[in-house]
Specification:
The chain has 280 residues and is mainly α. The protein contains 13 helices and no strands. It has one domain: Glycerol uptake facilitator protein. Helix 4 runs antiparallel to helix 6 and helix 4 packs parallel to helix 8. The radius of gyration is 21 Å and the shape is globular. One of its GO terms (molecular function) is formate transmembrane transporter activity.
């Protein structure tokens, strides 16, 4: 039976709608979505933000646990340099858990939360309040998973205190300028991660994006303040080679570098490039 003109028109409209839904987002659409997502976080209560951040600090610790397991397993079989590169394969696991679980991670949210300030929908005092809550939650969560890892690893015979010490020393072996520039690059990549995730709507593609970006950070040995917090704090509580001064210096430089990378190279440049009409 032949279709009526109305049915044919309806089918054409449905096909057009499907094509529009599957079409990639434009730069301005991504920017609007990013600002909208950031404003949703601004609307959350302080306790909600802190708990979500604390959870992220815990979850990201699974990257550290797997790094310890792989390092201990491979130690003595291949060179240390090869071990650090292979660890990049498991480094993304904690990030996948955090990002897909919608927990709030400082380095991912740094550039995102700065966008409403650029857009004049929020102010610097609210931005610093949010950054502080997220950062404190991430760090405290990381400290707790560090304590758990230090206790459970040797008891399960999956890694030793010596392995933790080697990882911690490896993280802070560079001078502060190198850590600073490295942290800027890591913050830049994490800001791009947030941007790319907004343009993707399938779970598989999101996992792939998270894996690629964070594996690059791991393979290059870039310094990430939240994973680094767990790595260095674990060394602090297990080894005499890591001092409180080492930990505090590393954290300060890594946090500032990550924040600068996300704000300048992603939030500021993306906003200036794509918000030229001022209608977001």
């Amino acid at each position: 039976m032949a279709k009526t003109e109305t049915e044919q028109k309806s089918n054409i409209d449905n096909r057009d709608l499907s094509i529009q839904e599957n079409a990639p987002m434009s730069h301005s659409e991504i920017l609007r979505e990013q600002i909208s997502e950031a404003l949703d976080i601004y609307d959350k209560t302080n306790s909600s933000i802190f708990l979500s951040s604390f959870t992220a600090g815990l979850e990201i610790g699974f990257s550290f646990l797997l790094i310890c397991v792989m390092s201990d397993f491979l130690m003595g079989s291949i060179t240390q340099e090869a071990i650090w590169k292979i660890n990049a394969l498991v480094y993304p696991v904690g990030f996948i858990l955090v990002v897909l679980g919608k927990s709030i991670l400082f380095t991912e949210q740094t550039s995102l939360l700065f966008l409403p300030v650029l857009n004049k929908k929020s102010n610097l005092s609210d931005l610093f309040r949010l950054w502080s809550l997220v950062l404190v939650g991430n760090i405290l969560g990381g400290m707790l998973i560090s304590i758990i890892a230090v206790w459970i690893g040797p008891r399960l015979h999956i890694f030793s205190a010596e392995t933790i010490e080697k990882i911690s020393i490896h993280v802070i072996h560079d001078n502060l300028v190198v850590i600073w520039v490295s942290a800027i690059l890591a913050g830049w990549l994490m800001g791009l991660l947030s941007w790319l995730l907004t343009s993707s709507d399938s779970t598989i593609s999101r996992i792939l994006i998270i894996y690629i970006i964070t594996a690059v950070i791991g393979a290059m040995g870039l310094h990430h303040s939240i994973v680094g917090n767990i790595e260095v704090f674990s060394g602090l509580i297990t080894s005499n080679e890591i001092t409180l001064r080492d930990y505090l210096l590393f954290q300060t430089i890594a946090i500032l570098g990550n924040a600068l990378g996300g704000v300048v190279f992603v939030a500021l440049l993306k906003y200036k490039a794509f918000a030229f009409d001022g209608k977001h």
